[in-house]
Amino acid sequence: MRGFWIALGTVMLGALALAGCTSAPPTPPTEISITFQHRAPIALNVAKIELVDRYQPTLRSPHVEHLHKVTPSTVTRSWIRERLRAVGARGLITLIVEEAGVIEEPVGVSDGFEGLFRDEVDTRLVGVIRARFDHIDVGPPGSSHSVEVIAEASAEVLESATLNERDLAYFRLVERLAGEFDRVLTAEIEKSLASLIVQ
After folding, report:
1. What's the CATH superfamily of 43-107+119-196?
2. What is the pLDDT of residues 165-174, one digit of tens each?
């Protein structure tokens, strides 16, 4: 009997040692925000630049952006604050955000015995920012211009992912969405509003 308890104690010590060797999954960033400070601001010959965020979060599934501190809406606010500069005497540019959300889509995984040996994607995250640029020049002569832009990004999450890893996947998705938003809007400004750019 004494040998049984010794053997059991050895097994338990071994299990504890193994548990101590495993590292915890990465913690998602909590105080990190997404900024565009590494990008040179674009100076525009207008008197004012403003943001109008018309997107109203549903606060329910399949949307998940309301569960996080960093959202597509916070990205748009950072972008217009850090990427654009009004250096003119007249005219107004308005960035109107119509959609700025992230949805979580379930992905089917294999059933039965085969599924036990596969680590498959069970969730897809899809982010989108849809906005419109409006430029109004009071003149003389008066003029107006409007252009729509859309940025999208997606990411897949494995079924084995922990809650921390899923939060991290969301953050990385919003990072990619921010990069795409910056690319699309910068290209549109250089194309459609080139006459307003002050070098």
Report:
1. Lipoprotein like domain (3.30.160.150)
2. 999 999 999 9
